[in-house]
Write a structure and sequence with these properties.
This protein is α/β, with parallel strands linked by helices. The protein has helices spanning 56-63, 85-91, 107-117, 122-135, 151-162, 181-196, 208-214, 232-238, 254-265, 285-298, 313-321, and strands at residues 18-27, 30-40, 45-49, 71-76, 79-80, 92-95, 169-173, 200-204, 217-222, 225-230, 242-248, 270-272, 277-282, 303-309. It has 2 domains: 18-101 and 149-236, Rossmann fold (3-Layer(aba) Sandwich); 241-310, Alpha-Beta Plaits (2-Layer Sandwich), CATH 3.30.70.100. The strands form 3 sheets. A 6-stranded mixed beta sheet has the order 6-7-8-3-9-10. Strands 2-1-4-5 form a 4-stranded antiparallel beta sheet, with helices on one face. It has a 4-stranded antiparallel beta sheet with strand order 12-13-11-14, covered by helices on one side.
Length: 342
């Protein structure tokens, strides 16, 4: 029989909003978590990225007391998830991938219902609903049925419901999936406001730009272990070289441009002959950019475009996990390439 550790545990650096130490979890013969260590500072947004089956959902389920770890230990808001599960539940909020609102109730009634479930008095529930409707710009729609709300309004109402009990830690599972670009940006602003007010967020998202824009730190998990963590910029810098991208003006210059860029970079460039685009990695971006411009000018190869950029989170993910980014179709056709992150 698997033994559940039920002791308090010392983790260096008191005051973390979320702490996991050597957490393991097995389902039958499948080892979902293989000794996960993770800390999240109060009042920050921490992104959790990884491929399907990496263990992300298991981590969230353990932190929200839906699962118990087989070994190791975890705390949320200072409370052990095994020994003090009730205190953990009183300290957290959870917004799932799909808005969990009752469409037959008004926005106000949804919030008041959640307040009553948290044992607020009727007057306290009404007051809290009024506060949250104002905070999420839903006051005018408060007395409308939730089924009449747009997708963005439902997501805001769902997020408001998760904040009724003023949790210190909030789990957000793909909060902008399916939203149009404007609603998505509005949700980003709302999330930033929550952090400014002191809430700690653990964010899972399909969109790399969302993690890049919102998360102050990111953990990449693969096959049940955290394989890298740090700020988005630190993770991008960790895989090294800058990316040099250029487009030649004439189709006839693509082949000679590839050869010239290969001699300068020492690597075989990636190319798209139809689009006349060529790219490669370079060790010293600024120096290489100058050298390429001079060399192409000497060779009389006209450039339509040239750019130097940092590696993207897409490339970080591929480098760390060996798995490509996967695309998904959403209600937003102009959304960026999506990464299976949850």
């Amino acid at each position: 029989m698997t033994t559940i550790l039920s002791r308090s545990f010392p983790i260096p650096g008191a005051g973390h909003a979320i702490e996991l130490q050597a957490v393991r979890k097995t389902f039958g013969k499948t080892e979902a978590l293989r000794g996960v260590d993770l800390t999240v500072e109060p009042g920050t947004i921490h992104g959790l990225l990884g491929p399907n089956g990496a263990g992300k959902t298991t981590i969230v389920n353990i932190l929200s007391t839906l699962l118990k770890p087989d070994s190791g230990a975890a705390r949320v808001a200072g409370f052990d998830v095994v020994n003090h599960a009730d205190q953990v539940r009183a300290s957290i909020g959870l917004t799932g991938q799909y808005a969990a609102v009752d469409e037959l109730l008004t926005g106000r009634q949804n919030l008041e219902m959640v307040g009553r479930l948290y044992h607020l008095s009727p007057s306290q529930a009404r007051q809290r609903a009024t506060e949250l409707l104002a905070q999420f710009s839903l006051t005018d729609a408060g007395n409308r049925l939730a089924r009449e709300y747009s997708g963005g309004m439902r997501r805001r109402l769902d997020l408001a419901a998760s904040l009724v009990a003023r949790p210190s830690v909030l789990f957000l599972d793909e909060p902008t999936t399916g939203l149009d670009p404007r609603s998505r940006l509005e949700m980003w602003d709302t999330i930033r406001d929550l952090v400014r007010s002191g809430t700690t967020l653990l964010l899972t998202t399909q969109y790399l730009d969302e993690a890049d824009q919102l998360a102050s730190t990111i953990a990449v998990i693969d096959t049940g272990k955290v394989v890298a963590s740090g700020t988005p910029n630190a993770l991008k810098a960790s895989i090294g070289n800058d990316q040099l991208e250029l487009t030649v003006a004439q189709p006839s210059d693509v082949v000679p441009a590839i050869g010239l860029l290969e001699r300068i970079s020492g690597q075989v460039p990636r190319s798209d002959h139809h689009a006349r685009e060529i790219s490669t990695t370079v060790a010293n971006g600024a120096r290489a950019l100058t050298e390429v411009v001079r060399a192409f000018d000497d060779a009389r190869i006209e450039l339509a475009h040239i750019a130097l950029r940092q590696p993207t989170l897409d490339e970080v993910f591929l480098h760390l996990t060996g798995q490509p980014v996967t695309t998904s179709t959403t209600a937003n056709p102009s959304a960026p390439v999506a990464l299976e992150v949850a």
